[in-house]
Amino acid sequence: xxxxxxxxxxxxxxxxxxxxxxxxxxxxxxxxxxxxxxxxxxxxxxxxxxxxxxxxxxxxxxxxxxxxxxxxxxxxxxxxxxxxxxxxxxxxxxxxxxxxxxxxxxxxxxxxxxxxxxxxxxxxxxxxxxxxxxxxxxxxxxxxxxxxxxxxxxxxxxxxxxxxxxxxxxxxxxxxxxxxxxxxxxxxxxxxxxxxxxxxxxxxxxxxxxxxxxxxxxxxxxxxxxxxxxxxxxxxxxxxxxxxxxxxxxxxxxxxxxxxxxxxxxxxxxxxxxxxxxxxxxxxxxxxxxxxxxxxxxxxxxxxxxxxxxxxxxxxxxxxxxxxxxxxxxxxxxxxxxxxx
Length: 341
Description:
Layout: E1 4-8, E2 12-16, H1 36-45, E3 54-58, E4 63-66, E5 70-78, E6 81-83, E7 86-87, E8 93-96, E9 101-104, E10 109-117, E11 151-152, E12 161-164, E13 182-187, H2 196-204, E14 207-213, E15 217-221, E16 232-237, E17 242-245, E18 251-254, E19 261-264, E20 266-270, H3 275-279, E21 286-291, H4 294-321, E22 324-329, E23 334-339
Parallel strand pairs: 13-21
Antiparallel strand pairs: 1-4, 1-11, 2-3, 3-10, 4-9, 5-8, 5-10, 6-7, 6-9, 12-22, 13-20, 14-15, 14-21, 15-18, 16-19, 17-18, 17-20, 22-23
């Protein structure tokens, strides 16, 4: 069944979820959304499970024709979304009528935007995930980025769900990470490969993203980081957010599609809650780095998860006292109707 038609794909638009787990030892990257914070919130806003398949758009969003009435939420980078020619807000649930057309007028901030649709995108799972891995040509929609004329279906929603319509999130639950470029890191595991001067340079300098950046990693340009005895190590595992330093002394931050092993020394690792800052940086943006400890990084993660829990609780309360969508599952897909509370 066709529910969505891609009229214009944008330069890099793929279907993603939270990635495939358990296959790193076989050389298969986890993949999934690069900005997992924005991805999760988009799904929460439309009443999906946090890992439901959604659309990730880079630099410029797609133009989508809807063939079914539904609910969408757009989060992450601000790309000036319009529905049937009228501007609509990001970070809110918005009703979409059958026959409506979603388009984007241009990037204002960030780099990647997420379009979650009630039910999630219905594509086959590969290794337990619907995420697109472009280098492996698997997952997502036929293992590739979306093209003009692609027709997509939506998954059937499993439960009834109240969804707040056009409800602005409380200020305390919204993070300004789209323009914050101070990235916190944990030093290591091969920081001993760098001289004291090299380490000081890393933390005292700004590095710009180059055009050689993609879903696999962000290559940076800035002051050269000085080694003790060269960049090469015996290849070992690479974690999400690892900062490799190549032979030319320039850092590379590993993102969602990163390789599973590598032979360059890693000076530090970006903490998980700051990875969205890197995901939303575009070529030409400058990043700077700050060292923190493992315990502090864990505390920051706990704070982030608490904030997401608070958001869910707030949405539940608002759905009970305000006008909202009640999504009902039927034999076909679901119907959306405004419910007076």
